[in-house]
Structure formats: structure tokens, C-alpha cells
Amino acid sequence: MPRFIFRLQALLDQRSRAQRDEQLIVAALETERLDLQRRIHAHQWTIQQGKEELRDVLSPHDTGSVVVEAAHLHRCAAASVAIDRAARRLVLQLAGVHHKLEHARAQLLNADIQLKVVERLKTRQYERWRCAQDRREAIELDELATMRTGRRNGDQSC
User: Which of 21, 115, 41 is nearest to 29 (CA)?
Assistant: First the structure.
């Protein structure tokens, strides 16, 4: 039985690879986005803890020396500023990743569309090929039936 051969299979394979490549790019950017968000949340948590610690240092209490508390206060403030700066850098990086991710998703959508176009073409060509095969088989069956009838009629005349 004849096999269907899609003449544009190389194009279909190339578009499938392009789609897979775009999926990998989107996945890598998603991973980077999630990592940046996790780090930002960790910085936010650290800043919150620092604020609570600072609140504890500034709250009135009977024990402890003023010098130790002042040094601790200075250390907390410096750490808070450094963490805040780092968090702001991460937010800027996250904005850049969001921009890249938006572009990568658009590229992936384009690759999906390009692949589907060729897949639809293959499906249509296969359907036409299948109809042509069915017609050929029907014609061959008709010819066989005609030949069989001819033989029967020829055998009866003798």
C-alpha cells in the first residue's frame, strides 16, 4: 500500500524545532523571574525583621546600656539600607526579565502559529491524498468486479 509523503516535512521539522527553542527560552526566563521574585521576597522579609528589631531597640526598657543600643541601632539601619538597595536592584532586574519574557512569549506565539500553518497544510494534503487513494481503490474494485462478471458471463455462453 502506498505511503503518504509530505514534501514539506523538513519545513515542519524546522518549525517544530523553532517552537521548542522558543519554549526553552520562555522556560528559562520564567525560572529567572521566579528566582528574582523569591529573592525579593527574602529581602522584604529581612527588611521587615530589621524593622521589628529596630522597633524593639527603640522601645523603652530598663536594662542595657545606651552605647550598645546605639551601636545596634546603627548596625540595623546600615543593614536595612543595604538590603533595601539590593532589593531595588532585584526589582529593576525583574522588570527587565518581565520585558524579555513578554518578548519571548510573543516569539513563542509566532512560532506556534507558523508551526500550525504547516501542520494544517500537511493535514489537508493528507486528506486529499487519502481521498485519491480511496478513489483509486474504488476504481480497481469496480474493474475487478467487471472482470469477474465478464468471466461468469463468458463461462455461461460455452
Answer: 21
Cα distance from N-terminal residue to C-terminal residue, the chain: 38
pLDDT of res. 70: 62
Rounded to an integer, what distance in angstroms lies between the CA atom of residue 137 and that of residue 135?
Answer: 5
What contacts 111, CB < 8 A, 6 or more positions away?
Answer: 15, 18, 19, 21, 22
Q: Which H or E element spans position 52?
A: helix 9-58
pLDDT digits (tens, 9 = 90+) for 82-95: 888 999 999 999 99
Domains and CATH numbers, the chain: 10-157 (1.10.287)
Tell me how far CA of residue 13 lies from CA of 21, 60, 95, 113, 123, in angstroms: 12, 72, 34, 14, 15
Q: State pTM to two decimals.
A: 0.71
